[in-house]
Amino acid sequence: MLGWWNRWPRSPFVRRPEPWTLRRALRAAAAGVGLLTLGLLGLGVAGALSTGALGRVWNLRSELLPIEVQDRRGAPLGVIDHCREGNAVNAVPCRESLSVPLTGVSEAFLLAYVAKEDVRFFSHPGVDLGRLPRAMLSGAGGSTITMQLLKNSVLAGHFDYDTDRRGPLLTVARKATEFVLAPLVTWRYGRREVLAMSVNSLPWIGIGQRKGVYDASRAVFGVDPADLSLAQSAFLVGLLPAPGRYLVQEDTPPETATARFRWMRSQQLVTLNILRSHGLVSDGAYAQAVATPVQPRLWRVEYAGSGADLRVVSAARNPDYANEPEPVWAMQELVRRELRRAGVDPKRVGRVVLTIDAQAQAALTRRVQGEGATGPRAAGVAEGAAVVDVRGGGIVALASSTGGSLSSDPGRQWAASALRPVASTVKPLLYALAFGDGVTQLSAFRDGATSYAGQAIRNNSGGFLNRAVTVREANARSLNTVAVQVGTPREKALRRTLDALGYRADSGNTSSVSLGTYRAAPLDVAAAYASFANGGTRCEPHLLAEVYDRAGRPLSLPRPDCAPLWDEVVAYETFDLLTGAVSSNVGHVKFLRPTAWQRLSGRAMPLGAKSGTTDDVNDTWCAAVTPQYAMAVWIGDPDGRQSVPVSLYRDQAACREVGLLRDLPHDRTSVPVPPGITTVGGVAVPLPGLNPSNPAPPAP
C-alpha cells in the first residue's frame, strides 16, 4: 500500500523518509544535546538576570570577605562576616560564623574536602562536564565546589534552596544558573580564592545553625580549623551531605543513636578511602586516621577493636556537653548595627578597631561562663555583663551566657538585649536627682511604715529601723521606705530621667518607680553609672573606635553622643554615695573592699557599687563604678518565669562579678573633686548655701 505522501505530485521537496541509521541517530542526538544546552544556557542567563546574581557574583568577594576586627590596642579579635537580616536574600545567611583564611585551615581538611566534593576542582573552569548530567538530574549530587558556593551565597533564597519551594523545574533552573555563573566566578577570582570562600560558607545547618569550617570544627571537636587532624577532617567532610544527622538528643533511643553514629563513621571511612585511592595521603596516614577513635563533643562513643578493625560499639549524647556561642558572634551583630547607624555600609568596611579591651573581654567572658568568682550557672539562668569606659562611653567588655540554651538560639546577647526590671540599682539615680533638688547625703528620713498608692512598702529585711536615717545609710542598707519617700514627690522627674537613659517603663507594674520597676539592659545601666565618674555627663555606649574601608582608608564616624545628665557637684556626691555603700559596715557589698594585696599593688582605687533584686527574685543585679570604668551585671531568667537559685541571691553573685573592675588597668585612679564640694565627717556634700541644680534630661 502506497504511503500518504504518494498522493502528492512528484516534487524534489517530497521524498520517501530515509531509514534510521547509526549515523543519523548520532546526528539527531548531537542536535538534541545542542538544543538542550542552548536551552539550559538561556535558562541560566534568565535565572542570573532575574535574581540579580550577575552583579553580585562580580562583587562576591566583597560580600563574603570578612571584616578584620581589632581591639583598642590593635590586638586581633578575629573577623566577622557580612550578612543581611530580616527577609532579605542573604549573601551570607546570618548564622554564627567566623571566617578564616586558607592558611588557617589544616591541609588535611582541604585535601579531604576537595577530594570528596570535587576532585577535579583545580582542573575544570567551575563546571565539571563529566558530572553535569548527575547534577542536573539529582539537584544535589554532581555539583562542583564553585557551584556549591553559588548555591550557598548569591542563589540562597532563590529557586529551591533556603526557600519553602520544591520541584524539579526549580532545581533545573538553579543548576542552569550555577552552570552559567560558575565559570565567571572561577575566571574572576581564581581557584584558591573560590576555595577559601567555599570552606567559610559550608552550610552546617544541622549543627546549631553554624556555617563554615571554623564554626564546624569548634562546635564538633572544640579545636581551631588549623588543628584539625586527618581523622577529624574526614569526619566533618563526611557530614556534609546531611549535617543534621550529627544532632542527638538525650531521649534518642540507644539503638537509633548508635546506628546514626555508625553512619557518620561509614562516611568518614568513605572520605578516607577516596583520599587514599587518589594518592593524596600516605598509607601510614590513612591507617592512623582509620584507627583513631574520634570523639565529637556532643557524643559519647565506645569503640572496640583497633587499627583497621576499629568499630563503634555504642554511641549516645554526651551528658556533659555544653556549647556556648562564640563571643564574637554576639558582638558582630552589634558592630554591623552601629555601622549602619553611622551611615557606613558594612560591605565597604575592611577593618574596624573596637573600644573593646581583649584582656578585659577574655576575663569577663570567663566569669560569665562560670570560671570566675561565682561558679557555673544553673540551667535556665542567664547572665549579661557590660563594662564601659566612663570617658566617652566606649564598651570595654561585653559578655553574655545563653541561659542554658544551645547556641542555635542566636542573638542571645543579654548584656545588650535583656530588658529586665532594674530593681534597687535605680536608687542612686533617684538620689542623684534629689541631690539636684536640695537633698544631700546627710539629709535624714524616717525608716518606718510607708505606703505608695495604697501599697505597703517593705524593706528587704522585712522590718524597719523605726528611726531617722541619712540618705547615705539608706542607700547602703537599700531601704525601700526612704527611696519611696524621696521618690514619690519626684516621680515625674525620675520617669523623664529614666526615659532619657534608655530605660523602659513597665506598664504592668504598679509599684513605685523608685523601687526599680523600669526595665533596662546591663549595657544601659553601666552607661548610666558611668556618668557619676564623668562629671555628670552620660555618653551613649558604643563599640566603634575606628573604621577603614577595603583600601585601608579611614571612614568618618560621628562623635560619641554625650550629654550632661547631672550637675558636676551632684555627680561627685553620688559617686561618693556609691563608694560609701562599699565601705559602710551596714552595706551589702563589704566584700568589694580592696584586699591587702590590692592595696600593695596599687589597685585599691575607689569603687562604688549598688546591688538589686526584684521581689520575685527573677532578677538579681549589681552596678558599679570606678574613676575609669562602670560595670553592670544581671543574672536571672530572661523570660521572667523562674527565680534565680537562692545561693546566687544570698552570695551576691552579681556583685562578686564586678570585683573584676579592680583587676583592670587604670590610668585614672581618682575622680576630680569639683568646686563646691566639701566633706562633713568624711561624707561629700555641697558647700553651705550652694544649691546644685541638674540640667534638663536630654531627649530620649
UniProtKB/TrEMBL annotation:
Chain ranges of the Glycosyl transferase family domain: 95-264
Predominant localisation class: membrane
Penicillin-binding protein transpeptidase domain residues: 385-642
Record SUPFAM superfamilies: beta-lactamase/transpeptidase-like (SSF56601), Lysozyme-like (SSF53955)
Domain of life, source organism: Bacteria
Pfam families in the cross-refs: Transgly, Transpeptidase
EC number: 2.4.99.28
Presence of the UniProt keyword Zinc in the record: no
Name of the protein described by the UniProt record: peptidoglycan glycosyltransferase
Intracellular or extracellular location(s): Membrane
Top enzyme class: transferase
Gene3D superfamilies: Biosynthetic peptidoglycan transglycosylase-like, DD-peptidase/beta-lactamase superfamily
Lipid metabolism among keywords: no
Reactions it catalyzes: [GlcNAc-(1->4)-Mur2Ac(oyl-L-Ala-gamma-D-Glu-L-Lys-D-Ala-D-Ala)](n)-di-trans,octa-cis-undecaprenyl diphosphate + beta-D-GlcNAc-(1->4)-Mur2Ac(oyl-L-Ala-gamma-D-Glu-L-Lys-D-Ala-D-Ala)-di-trans,octa-cis-undecaprenyl diphosphate = [GlcNAc-(1->4)-Mur2Ac(oyl-L-Ala-gamma-D-Glu-L-Lys-D-Ala-D-Ala)](n+1)-di-trans,octa-cis-undecaprenyl diphosphate + di-trans,octa-cis-undecaprenyl diphosphate + H(+)
Keyword vocabulary terms for this entry: Carboxypeptidase, Cell shape, Cell wall biogenesis/degradation, Glycosyltransferase, Hydrolase, Membrane, Multifunctional enzyme, Peptidoglycan synthesis, Protease, Transferase, Transmembrane, Transmembrane helix
